[in-house]
Structure prediction request, 433 residues.
Amino acid sequence: MVVQHNLTAMNSNRMLGLTTASQAKSTEKLSSGYKINRAADDAAGLSISEKMRKQIRGLTQASTNAQDGISAVQTAEGALNEVQDMLQRMNELAVKSANGTNSETDRSYIQNEIDQLTTEIDRVSETTKFNETYLLKGDKTAKPANTFAYHVTTVQAGQTLTPASATGAGGKTLYKSANTAATDDEILNAYNPQTGVVTGLFTDATATTAATKDDIDYTAEVKATADSKTQDIQYYDADGNKIAANALTDYFEIKDGATAVTLKDGAKLYDKNGAAISKTDAEQAVTAGKITTGTVTGALELKLHVGADATDNNQISINIDAMSADGLGVAGLKVDGSDDTNARDAIDTIKAAIQKVSTQRSALGAAQNRLEHTINNLDNVVENTTSAESQIRDTDMATEMVKYSNNNILAQAGQAMLAQANQSNQGVLSLLQ
Prediction:
């Protein structure tokens, strides 16, 4: 029997310490709800769960991004619904103006409402925005492709094409200049942008070009300058039908850096007497200057990030064309006049504008449906990843409570045994008496 070292008490104390430490960990897990409260609890599990947390939080935000995208699309589509209603009314007015029972004064009254509706279309385009992003104004930073199709432009020898300011995407501002019979210093009257009717004299003729790149429409302007001379001119198709100004894009084209406006392959033009116009006569050489493109306005591209990683597959692009009156081709639309010429041409122009808005609305509707499926998928991935992360990190309360109760009993037993061990040396005193 020794008194210097009570090994029984030391053993009881060590075991009590282990039990108390285990009990403390159980208390921490039960109180926090996590079985990993520090890296030492599960180093590998912590690393895996943090990667899962990164994905969960990223995908949750991606789902929110997609929902914001739906809100933006709905905002744009709602505005386009009103634009389409106005275009339908403009078509109704154009058809009314084309009726022969209307006098020139009657058509002027109809023109007043057309002008108001056109102004309102511009206002809607200029003011519709989502979170400070204008949705229907297009994107002025877009870059044009190298090949451009002229809507209605030919030029004659000696004229120079130079860049001018840009117009809205999909613009239908259409002008016509030049004549094969004219001399080098002559230029014809410009066609009205929407109707193809010859208007007053001019020296600065502005022509709109259009380009397509990555399924996005752009427009830019070029300018031709020469002296003025009055002369009527009109193109006809093979059936003798007058070709509207907004349809001549199918006949002429020009390339960046080229020195001539050319007739497209296979295109046929006729004069009002039915005589075919030769390719040489239709094309007018440009002997000076270089054709270049100016700053353009393209479709607005909304890029929605709908994933947790920085990959292109996690981006959805939504393109919205400029929906101003210029962009739709109805700026300066005319239905007045002494006869039905303007009104009939306006009907075709409005028809094209309605089709453009319908196409855009259809694209927005398809994008909204896609985004809804994207959100459903993201939410499903978040749910399942959260379940997996929970298995790694969350405390199983029932299991941990069993361990806590067991440690609590062991702690009480350890305390009792330590007390007994401390009293075991009391017998030494009886030996010393």
Notes: Residues 143-233, 284-295 have pLDDT under 50 and may be disordered. The radius of gyration is 40 Å. Residues 115 and 228 are 29 Å apart (CA to CA).
